[in-house]
């Protein structure tokens, strides 16, 4: 059965015809397994296979001999085919060699015929190109000989006549390129001449500018050597109030020959180069190059020397170079208008004038010499006038002069700071005393002070002010004259000069003099009497304000009806300084009082008072009485304020002593001693050390201290608590905090008494003190 299955397994595709039907292997297998004839089917199948095998063997046996013969015929055919193939290859090689030789002979023949034809054509072409070559050789000789005008003509003939006839030849393109190089070489050669010209013009520009500025000075009738219009003498203020003059010995200009720009420089390279570039159709390129190079030179000319601010020669060199540049450009514009025109020059000038103003502004800001600044001003004016004659706008330079004038004023004010300080240092701060009429007249001439009583008084006469007043007044006048030196020749109206002088004088008064006086009165070395004299001096300096206004009007010639527009601020300045001086008087008085109060040496554990005021306080009161006697020359309100300040300061010091944290305990005897000192102070206040006070004004300074001492000494706490917070309270000025502070110190002093706890009265007092302290703290908390 197993062998049967093995035989059926390969039969998966073929079909078997059974009972006249086509059946698949699966169907056949199913049919076989459904019957009991499996063994019979296997035997038949095996028999059928053997039958087919025999048929196959018979067929192979029948055709074997023919197959062998066919193989033998094929082998013979193969040998024949190989022999034929070899013969064919040999024949092909012979044919290829023959064809190659034939091809070479034909190529040689063709080349020979082509060379002959090319030679004929070349001869014809060379004959047609000979004129071009002759012209080109001629051009080369002209270039070597630097004959640029004939070279340009030959170049034009080549480009417009000869080269078009041979344009179909390739070498004509090479020749065109070479002609372009020739054209560039002509440009370069002409540009070398132009560069030499630019270098020359840069060298001679300062000289040209110097000549131009000299001509302008002559045309405007400005005699610089005689200094009729330009300031030659410069003021140097001294403490004495006089003027020192220094002659300007140097020559403003040293021009050997009266030459113009075209006399100093040959302008032909400019015109020649312009013509060459015009012919070469490169005029625009040349114009751009010329303008670019000149702009570079302008930038170099606009760069100031590094040490320009040190001497006037640096400014002259700077301005000469700039003027020379624009004079040259103006000449080129007039002779070659296409190269330089007015719009181009205006653009260059607009850029230049801003840089000029910036450079001069920067370098002049370093200047601290008024004489040098006046020379700068004169040079700027001449520079502006020179360029104005050539049609340039100089409005920015006018504004620059105004800025320089402001800086000149700042320099003057800095110098006057030292002048005022020297005056203050030399003054003895005592009234001027004269013994002769000549001395009296000198003081009156330096300071227009008039007093009928003083004039009628016999010699020696005493002015109410010190020598500081006439010296300061004289120096203010000198300052005004120095300011006028700069404003002259600026073509300003009289009223404008008047307003300017008033503005600058106000700056001197409000900044310089006010600052110097403020510094003076704050010097710790000044005594109280010196401060008093300074305060008196400010009164008379304030009166000089009107005289200074009249002096300015006389200098400028301006209408006095319009002078009220810019009044001098001297009155307000000296009034403020006087107020400051009065405050310093008060502060100096306080400092002197502090020196006395530093001697206070209270024995805070004192059992019994001494019965009289403390010695340091008696000395202080004696000092105040003598000091207030010296206040008679001051105004009444100054003495009154000083006296009121002194009383309040004493009260504050005594109150601070009682409340000081350094004092830990105070005995009742010490408190009574303080009360005696306060009584002495109240007696001093009641004696009216300075007249003019209303009743009780000075005594009110000690009211806080008096109410506190009365409350502590009388132990009137029931009235204090009952009337607390009411305007009618007897102890209205006693705050709970102050009362607590002093009570705690009294309680601390009682603790140090050993036998105080043995006395019933002391124990009751202690309990009462604790009760009072508790109530005071409650008041303090409720008010908070």
From TrEMBL:
Domain named Exocyst complex component EXOC6/Sec15 N-terminal: residues: 44-213
GO biological-process terms attached to the record: Golgi to plasma membrane transport; intracellular protein transport; vesicle tethering involved in exocytosis
Entry's Gene Ontology cellular component terms: exocyst; membrane
Pfam families listed in its UniProt record: EXOC6_Sec15_N, Sec15_C
Family membership noted in the UniProt record: Belongs to the SEC15 family.
Function statement: Component of the exocyst complex involved in the docking of exocytic vesicles with fusion sites on the plasma membrane.
Protein name, as recorded: Exocyst complex component
Record organism: Daphnia pulicaria
Gene: EOG090X01NK
């Amino acid at each position: 059965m197993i062998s049967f299955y093995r035989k059926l397994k390969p039969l998966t595709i073929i079909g078997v015809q059974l009972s006249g039907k086509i059946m698949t292997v699966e169907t056949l297998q199913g049919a076989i397994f459904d019957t009991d004839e499996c063994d019979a089917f296997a035997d038949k199948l095996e028999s059928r296979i053997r039958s087919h095998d025999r048929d196959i063997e018979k067929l192979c046996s029948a055709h074997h001999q023919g197959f062998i013969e066919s193989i033998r015929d094929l082998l013979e055919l193969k040998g024949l085919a190989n022999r034929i193939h070899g013969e064919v290859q040999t024949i092909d090689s012979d044919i290829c060699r023959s064809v190659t030789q034939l091809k070479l002979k034909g190529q040689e023949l063709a080349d020979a015929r082509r060379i002959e034809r090319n030679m004929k054509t070349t001869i014809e072409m060379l004959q047609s190109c000979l004129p071009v070559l002759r012209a080109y050789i001629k051009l080369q000789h002209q270039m070597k000989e630097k004959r640029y005008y004939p070279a340009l003509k030959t170049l034009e003939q080549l480009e417009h006549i000869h080269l078009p006839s041979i344009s179909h030849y390739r070498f004509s393109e090479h020749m065109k390129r070479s002609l372009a190089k020739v054209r560039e070489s002509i440009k370069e050669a002409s540009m070398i001449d132009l560069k030499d010209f630019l270098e020359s013009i840069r060298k001679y520009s300062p000289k040209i500018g110097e000549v131009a500025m000299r001509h302008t000075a002559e045309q405007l009738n400005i005699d610089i050597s005689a200094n009729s219009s330009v300031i030659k003498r410069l003021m140097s203020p001294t403490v004495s109030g006089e003027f020192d003059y220094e002659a300007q010995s140097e020559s403003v200009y040293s021009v050997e020959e009266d030459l113009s720009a075209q006399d100093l420089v040959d302008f032909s390279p400019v015109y020649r180069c312009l013509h060459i570039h015009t012919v070469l159709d490169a005029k625009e390129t040349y114009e751009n190059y010329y303008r670019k190079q000149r702009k570079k030179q302008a930038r170099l000319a606009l760069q100031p020397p590094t040490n320009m601010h040190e001497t006037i020669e640096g400014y002259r060199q700077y301005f000469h170079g700039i003027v020379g540049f624009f004079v040259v450009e103006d000449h080129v514009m007039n002779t070659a208008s296409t190269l330089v025109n007015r719009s181009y020059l205006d653009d260059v000038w607009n850029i230049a004038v801003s840089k000029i103003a910036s450079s001069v502004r920067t370098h002049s800001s370093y200047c601290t010499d008024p004489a040098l600044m006046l020379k700068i001003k004169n040079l700027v004016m001449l520079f502006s006038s020179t360029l104005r004659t050539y049609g340039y706008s100089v409005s920015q330079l006018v504004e620059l002069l105004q800025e320089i004038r402001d800086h000149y004023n700042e320099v003057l004010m800095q110098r006057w700071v030292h002048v005022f300080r020297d005056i203050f240092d030399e003054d003895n701060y005592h009234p001027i005393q004269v013994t002769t009429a000549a001395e009296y007249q000198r003081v009156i001439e330096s300071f227009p002070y008039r007093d009928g009583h003083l004039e009628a008084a016999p010699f020696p006469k005493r002015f109410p002010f010190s020598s500081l007043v006439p010296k300061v007044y004289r120096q203010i006048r000198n300052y005004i004259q120095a300011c006028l030196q700069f404003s002259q020749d600026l073509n300003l109206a009289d009223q404008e000069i008047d307003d300017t002088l008033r503005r600058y004088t106000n700056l001197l008064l409000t900044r310089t003099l006010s600052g110097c006086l403020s510094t003076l009165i704050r010097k710790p070395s000044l005594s109280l009497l010196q401060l008093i004299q300074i305060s008196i001096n400010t009164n008379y300096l304030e009166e000089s304000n009107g005289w200074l206004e009249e002096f300015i009007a006389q200098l400028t010639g301006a209408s006095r009806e319009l002078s009220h527009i810019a009044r001098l601020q001297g009155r307000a300045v000296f009034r403020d300084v006087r107020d400051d001086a009065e405050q310093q008087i008060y502060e100096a008085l306080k400092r002197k009082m502090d020196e006395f109060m530093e001697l206070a040496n209270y024995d805070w554990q004192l059992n019994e008072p001494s019965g009289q005021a403390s010695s340091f306080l008696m000395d202080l009161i004696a000092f105040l009485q003598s000091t207030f006697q010296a206040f008679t020359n001051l105004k009444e309100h100054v003495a009154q304020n000083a006296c009121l300040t002194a009383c309040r300061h004493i009260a504050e010091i005594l109150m601070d002593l009682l409340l000081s944290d350094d004092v830990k305990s105070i005995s009742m005897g010490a408190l009574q001693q303080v009360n005696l000192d306060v009584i002495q102070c109240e007696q001093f206040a009641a004696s009216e050390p300075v007249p003019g006070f209303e009743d009780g004004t000075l005594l009110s300074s000690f009211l806080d201290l008096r109410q506190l001492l009365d409350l502590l000494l009388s132990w009137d706490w029931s009235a204090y608590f009952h009337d607390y917070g009411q305007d009618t309270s007897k102890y209205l000025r006693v705050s709970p905090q102050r009362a607590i502070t002093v009570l705690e110190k009294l309680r601390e002093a009682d603790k140090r008494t050993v036998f105080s706890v043995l006395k019933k009265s002391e124990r009751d007092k202690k309990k009462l003190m604790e009760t009072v302290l508790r109530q005071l703290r409650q008041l303090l908390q409720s008010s908070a």
